[in-house]
Amino acid sequence: MKLWKKLSLMTVTVLMAAMAASGMAVIYRSTQYNQEKTLEGCEQQLSAAAYALGKELEYGPLEGYSEATRNSYVNYLIKKIGAEKYILVQDGKVICNLTAFELKKPEDERWNRPEGYSIIQKRGNQYIIVAGKQVPAVGKEQYRLFLVQDISELYEDMKAQALFNLAVFAGAALLSLVLIFLMTQTILHPLRKLQQAARDISEGKLTSRVDVHTKDEIGVVAKAFNRMAERIEDQVTELSQVSERRRQMLGSLAHELKTPMTSIIGYSDSLLHVNLREEQKERALQHIREECSRLERLSSKLLSLMGMYENDSIFMEDTSMKELFERVARLEEHHLQKKKLTLIWSCDMENRKVDRDLIESLLVNLIDNSAKASKEGGQIFLEGEKDRIRVRDQGCGIPEDEISRVTEAFYMVDKARSRKAGGCGLGLALASRIALLHGAELHVESKLGKGTEVSIIFRQ
Amino acid sequence: MKTKILVIEDDSSISELICMNLEAAGYEAVSIADGLEAERFLRGSGGKMSENSGTEGGIDKSEVALALVDVMLPGKDGFELMEDLQAADIPVIYLTAKDDVISKVHGLKAGAEDYIVKPFEILELLVRMEKVLKRTGRSRQQIRIRDVVIDLKKHSVTKGGAQVQLKPLEYELLVTLAESRNVAFSREELLNRIWGMDYVGETRTVDVHIGQLRKKLDFHNVIRTISKTGYRLEDME
């Protein structure tokens, strides 16, 4: 069952139960009261009649008359006191009965109380009151006066009232049921929105949000839900990006392996199957060797990349950055001369705890990149400041939309050219990894056609 | 005159590999390593190419019978060169490491005759080239091996000017070996190629026919048995 149905049914049930209980209590109480009042009234009437009868009989005017005369006198008296609802009993025998009823057991002692006794009896469909009382002492004769009154009407009234109450109750119940249904539905409507949004998200529509701004608990839940949805969306996007990058990296790796493999397979195939001249055979072998060392380079770079991902054991020592720069400049000198490039370096850095080999290879890497991008006769700047090292060139630059990706493994802005220059697309990935190990960040800024500036920013 | 093949490939090692094998198989190879350079060559009116050609003389684009084109090239990629290649009426076989279906379809739709995925076998390359050359009517009219001349049009073979009578299967075998001269064929490959895939015969059949060819053409030192491989028709000129 739906929550709104449950809630409204629950409310209606409780409400109805309360209403029914109070209604029943009221009806019961009023019935009781009416009965008491009627009985009281009867008793008063009876006692007044008994008193009057007693007074009449006290003077004993019947003394000496015959039985029949006496009876008719008594009949007369009772008629005079009131209507046809009295029964007079003398010494346990009915001597006068004007009612339509017959008195059973008139001799029963309970009727002989001076204060009177009354009872309600049911005769068929009729309810009657029987009240009996001793007539105050009249000589030596014992008289009892009974009052019998039909009170069926009273019960009819009560029944009608109960029925009316029931009708009102039913009407109120129906009305409240409808009203409560409508109200709970309105209150719980945001829940349905929440459900829809949850379904959307589970179906992969991660951008779905709940449009609920109430201030109640549902509003709070909706807010929390939206926050959760946002997190999920972020994480899923990030995850899919990561896996996409990984997929691309694997694809690139496969591609990088294919080129040297093509050569190696081709040359060895030729050596095996093709009738080559001696000098061609030699060239083929040279090529196989070259391509193998290309693969070796690739694998060792990959290994160092992987190794650094897993094993953070690096050897940090207090290093004079100036000496380190000098050594890098010396290492690059020969390489740069071939392209007629000049390395201009300056260093204002203090000694720093670094892994010399790693930082050296990082700088060599960055300078090599700059050299590849630079035109012949260009300049490359290596600058050390307080907490950053900058490698700047005036080369071809990197397109803006690719800057964020250059540190990905195997990412090459210009694949064909880069491979020709001996690159395999791992340099910057490695560099950013080395920077990270030193608590530094790699920051790449570039303008197409103007040059590139890579900064290694050390955090304190 | 040798059939001229244009090789547009930026990886110098692969380029040299292809040229080396083409020359061994009796073609003349011209290599270009750059997309833009290829474009210049293809657009140039009668411009001669002499550098990188590996041969002494320069050649004209109209002499090129077939182009082997790498897809990923610096400057201009292989697909972009298609228009110029078609304008110069040169059939194209793409060579690429991209073996995904989409780029294959893209290459063939653009008008390439064939598509070979790296790494490839030399024999496969040569056979596919020969097929394309035949299909486009650019195959050689005759093949000369020492004093033997195979006239591919007339289906006749002469040795030192004298007609040599060959059975049809012997002729096919000779042509297959001569078209990819200096490249070794396995017996299975020869069976497949000449007798057909369905032929259920022994590789001995090949040996028998090779023996006949050797005898009829005096090719005992030309058609060589390569141990563990098969046969190779050797002719280094």
Count of individual beta strands of chain A? 12
Rg calculated over all Cα atoms of chain A: 57 Å
Mean pLDDT of chain B: 84
Number of domains of chain B: 2
Estimate percent helicity of chain B: 25-40%
Let me know the number of strands of chain B. Answer: 12
Please identify the top-level CATH class of the largest domain in chain A. Answer: Alpha Beta
- Please, how many domains of chain A? 3
Gyration radius over CA of chain B = 19 Å
Give the DSSP E fraction of chain B (strand runs of 2 or more residues).
15-25%
Poorly predicted tracts of residues of chain A:
none
Summarize the structure.
With 460 residues, chain A is of the alpha+beta class. Chain A contains nine helices and twelve strands. In chain A, strands 2-1-5-4-3 form a five-stranded antiparallel sheet, with helices on one face. In chain A, strands 7-9-10-12-11 form a five-stranded mixed sheet, with helices on one face.
What does this structure look like?
The complex is a heterodimer of chains A (460) and B (237). With 460 residues, chain A is of the alpha+beta class. Chain A has three domains: 3-163, Beta-Lactamase; 209-311, Signal transduction histidine kinase, dimerisation/phosphotransfer (DHp) domain (Helix Hairpins); 312-458, Histidine kinase-like ATPase, C-terminal domain (Heat Shock Protein 90, 2-Layer Sandwich). Chain A is 58% helix and 16% strand. Chain A has helices at residues 3-58, 67-81, 152-202, 217-273, 278-310, 321-338, 356-373, 415-420, 427-437, and strands at residues 86-90, 93-97, 117-123, 126-134, 143-150, 317-319, 342-347, 352-354, 379-385, 388-393, 440-447, 451-458. In chain A, the strands form three sheets. Chain A has a five-stranded antiparallel beta sheet, with helices on one face. In chain A, strands 7-9-10-12-11 form a five-stranded mixed beta sheet, with helices on one face. In chain A, strand 3 and strand 4 form a beta hairpin. In chain A, helix 3 runs parallel beside helix 4 (217-273). Chain A is rod-shaped. Chain B is α/β, with parallel strands linked by helices and 237 residues long. Chain B folds into two domains: 4-135, Rossmann fold (3-Layer(aba) Sandwich), CATH 3.40.50.2300; 142-233, Arc Repressor Mutant, subunit A. Chain B contains eight helices and twelve strands. Chain B has helices at residues 12-24, 35-43, 78-87, 101-109, 122-135, 168-179, 187-195, 204-217, and strands at residues 4-8, 28-32, 64-70, 92-96, 114-117, 142-145, 148-151, 156-159, 162-164, 185-186, 223-226, 230-233. In chain B, the strands form three sheets. Chain B has a five-stranded parallel beta sheet, sandwiched between helices. In chain B, strand 4 (92-96), helix 4 and strand 5 form a beta-alpha-beta unit. In chain B, helix 2 (35-43) runs parallel beside helix 3 (78-87) and helix 6 packs across helix 7 (187-195). The two termini of chain B are 13 Å apart. Residues 50-57 of chain B have low confidence and may be disordered. The chains are: A alpha+beta (460), B alpha/beta (237). At the A-B interface, helix 4, helix 5 and helix 8 of A face helix 1 of B.
